[in-house]
Amino acid sequence: MAQDHTGDAGRPAPGPSHFIATRIREDLESGRFGGVVHTRFPPEPNGYLHIGHAKSICLNFGLAEEFGGLCNLRLDDTNPSKEEQVYIDAILEDVRWLGFDWGERLYYASDYFEQLYAWAEQLVEQGMAYVDDLSAEEIRAHRGTLTAPGIPSPHRDRPVAENLELFRRMRAGEFPDGSRVLRAKIDMASGNVNLRDPVLYRILRATHHRTGDAWCIYPMYDFAHGQSDSLEGITHSICTLEFEDHRPLYDWFCRNLGIFHPRQIEFARLNLTYTVMSKRKLLQLVQEGAVDGWDDPRMPTLSGLRRRGFTPEAIRDFCNRIGVAKKDSTVDLALLEHCLREDLNRRALRRTAVLRPLKVVIENYPEGQVEALEAVNNPEDPAAGTRTVPFSRELYIEHDDFLEDPPKKFFRLGPGREVRLRFAYFIQCRKVVKDPSGQVVELRCTYDPETLGGSAPDGRKVKATLHWVSAAHAVSAQVRLYDRLLSVPDPAAEAGDADWKTYLNPDSLEVLEGCRLEPALAGAAPGEPIQFERLGYFAADPDGTPERPVFNRAVTLRDAWAKIAGKGPGGM
Ligand code: ATP
Ligand code: MG
């Protein structure tokens, strides 16, 4: 590896090789780009990055790393009306958080506006572009269909000098918005609709977040993207499949401008079950208040996943495992969660939290006595050591660990039953206290002082181990439990694309107040992975304070993927 882009030694090994790596290897062998590999990740700053973008980020930065090349970060900011600085800031933060470093190579397509304009004039001078006075609607109507050729515009054969003059006047602001466009003169009968004289420039009076009001004409995506790649010396321009039909245009511009010609390679975008993955739809959720913002832990955005408790390691591992293919498919959300569990099982500190507390009073335990009991921080990682947890006469256990009339298979606490308290003693339930409505509000128990360490000297067994916290020492917290954002795997397939919101899961968020945490959790920082024993993996939310922490559940401990993985790679 010629270059370490991350400074992160903990990175999992690169994923299995795929067809893009194979093509790059071919180019290296043939010397097509002089042995250079240079990629880029080119987000449009019109929303936050999501898990689909992570696939592209890992692919582009990963290939550069694998082949000792470089990867640029380029903000593709050619559309002034939808782009904002907050999105740019979030994009930079998210790419960095994923563990990638673009070094000095942060670029903006808008920095190339002057050069792009010059290239547009060059095409005009070569007789390869013309100013069209048709309206957007007329142009669309003239475009033809997949089976019928397009109809040439009456302005298609304007002389070069007239085109040049009109284009310069477009730039000078002499014409109203939408009144004229610059089009490439390619082939109105082409089988590829993208080649039917595509629009290169439109008139649009909008303030651009970087160029302000310097321009009133803006280049279209297709006219900006390939040329930006070319200017940056990108060798392999990797994009998603919907751009396959744009490749002939990409190549046409590079060829006819006579500029450095990158190789465009398309791959299948990531789709995830139970997840919407388009910025337009995610923006809708934010604007309509269906979620609490782009970083709502239910969102598939990187900032949402981060807030929820996902780690960059888990996301990179996921991107490696799903691989890169040429055919569209949908990945099971359970695989993403599985990758998180695997990572956190290795690294997360184990802590105790009681989400729905039920008070337990140990009648034979001395009032005022407190013992500091030793508890293991992570059984998977001996280096994580131990901590002490306070034990006292009044505790909380999980309400659903007790049943007054337990069925056969329920081995936890019930009247007269004995269970083990994790890291502590056996307790036996002697009496059930109820409120006037008949709700169980407290258990009176006794403990066996001989059972510290988890077993009884007389050899008697218990069938369950419960977690608990000491009532006097517990920290009260809010805990947010999340479920999938959508209630069906593929809402578009069920409802048609327009009605996808009918399938928003109404139970995607459950907020629990008055949860009781062991004292060590008061200082947990967001981003610090923690397992609440028996309950799942959690992360502190920035909404919390040391006095009143807030935790998000990232995933439960139940691994749905491990179960379905048996069905083989088709499930991916
Ligand atoms: P969206 O469809 O969510 O609006 P986009 O493609 O318009 O996304 P861009 O900001 O243009 O968003 O994307 C930046 C890069 O990320 C592009 O190269 C794009 O191909 C890639 N990308 C976007 N979505 C996915 C996805 N789901 N899987 C893989 N790559 C993606
Ligand atoms: Mg795009």
What is this structure, in a nutshell?
The protein is α/β, with parallel strands linked by helices.
Structure description:
The protein is an alpha/beta fold and 572 residues long. It folds into 3 domains: 251 residues, Rossmann fold (3-Layer(aba) Sandwich); 124 residues, Glutamyl-tRNA Synthetase, domain 2; 115 residues, Ribosomal Protein L25, Chain P (Beta Barrel), CATH 2.40.240. Helix content is 26%, strand content 23%. The strands form 7 sheets. The chain has a 7-stranded mixed β-sheet, with helices on one face. Helix 2 links the parallel strand 1 and strand 2. The chain is elongated. The N terminus and C terminus are likely disordered. It binds adenosine-5'-triphosphate (ATP) and magnesium ion.
Uncertain runs: 1-13, 567-572
* Largest sheet report: 7 strands, mixed
Strand order of the largest sheet: 12-25-26-27-23-24-13
**Termini gap:** 30 Å
Which percent range fits the helix content?
A: 25-40%
Rg over alpha carbons: 30 Å
Structure summary, number of beta strands: 27
What structural category arises from helix and sheet content? Answer: alpha/beta
The CATH homologous superfamily of the largest domain: HUPs
What is the level-2 CATH architecture name of the largest domain? 3-Layer(aba) Sandwich
